Amino acid sequence: MKILIINYEFPPLGGGGGVATLDLALEWVKTAQVDVLTSWFKGLPYYESVNGINVYRVPIFFRKSRDAASFLSMLSYLPFGFLKGLRLCRKNRYDVINTHFAVPSGPLGFALGMIFRIPNVLSLHGGDIYDPSKRMSPHRSLFWRKVVRFIMNRADRIVAQSSNTRDNAIQYYRPRKEVDIIPLAFHPPVLSGAKRSEMGFGKEEFLLITIGRLIKRKAIDHMIRALAGVPEVRVRLLVLGDGPEREYLESIAGELGMGDRVVFVGYVTERKKFDYVEISDVFISTSLHEGFGIVFMEAMHCGLPIICSNYGGQVDFLKNEENALLVEVGNIEGYARSIKRYMDDKKLYERCSKNNRLRIKEFYAENVAARYTNTFKEVSESRG
Fold first, then answer.
1. What does the DSSP 8-state code read for residue 132?
2. Is the distance from CB of 134 to CB of 110 less than 8 angstroms?
3. CA separation for the pair 341, 206 (Å, rounded)
4. pTM higher than 0.85 for the full model?
5. CATH 3.40.50.2000: which residues of the chain?
6. Architecture of domain 2-187+364-383 in CATH?
7. What's the CATH code, domain 196-362?
8. What is the pLDDT of residues 326-364, one digit of tens each?
9. What is the CB neighbour count within 10 angstroms for residue 269?
10. CA 291 to the chain's CA centroid
11. What is the pLDDT of residues 120-145, one digit of tens each?
């Protein structure tokens, strides 16, 4: 089988959507030819082979960081991606196209699939169809709702990563096709056995950790304000990731007297990221919305209890007081109470930690990739 993956972001660009694409590709490439059509950024090669995956990057305009894409940068991906996609499709007789994100990748997958009569499986990641932090989120615009609905209806199959993403697709876009659910894939890393003493943290400290791009949707300011509501100075927050909101968040931490308790680690390598997760006590997310959240799986693998909102794709696998504490979106006092509960209730902490180590096995990449492969075979046979 020959698979063309279309995703405007692919590691090291972007966030969880790109990482999830890589995790799938690493499984598919064991038995298939896998090509990825993505966008370029300074310092990256226009072509490279990543563990046998052919990664083709096309030039884009106005992207200033690896962590966040501007509207114009996403728009510029389409013409350059189309020209490169034409050459790739002429050279390779692909069996299927897997397009990630309805916007901005969706039009590209639709156009190439139509021209070359290749089945197109559209993967929705959540933020591409519903982002409450963005004024220009497609669900708020009549024009973009029509565009996204058109893209959905022209795909051979629609796949959502969670029931929340599926429900948002149905509510706002009313596609004529059914929306399947296949979760994100996860490759369990080999942990290094990191020690706090070697990373500059004390044994008695209670470490919260969050991972992600510093953008408005993540609402990390809520997290910092919640920390201010926990008077114990031994409680500290590690913020891994970078983005346009960093300066603003650092100023809030300073204003609230949290300068010493909030550690902005910035961008780190995958190995270093898991070192920080290993030494932490609790993973926390105050995001306004997550379509799924691959960072939750990373925390689960390391046995961390989780604090997050009760709205989003994560509620498919995070259950209150079983492996997480769920809080109303934006409830800063609720987040603060949850931190205290994990500190005071050892049985709750141990139960959530144990259940997360067990539950994560359901999302191992080989199982998720196999479900996609079955979908690819189905759409190819129906086209044939």
1. T
2. no
3. 12
4. no
5. 2-187+364-383, 196-362
6. 3-Layer(aba) Sandwich (3.40)
7. 3.40.50.2000
8. 999 999 999 999 999 999 999 999 999 999 999 998 899
9. 9
10. 8
11. 999 999 889 988 878 888 999 899 99
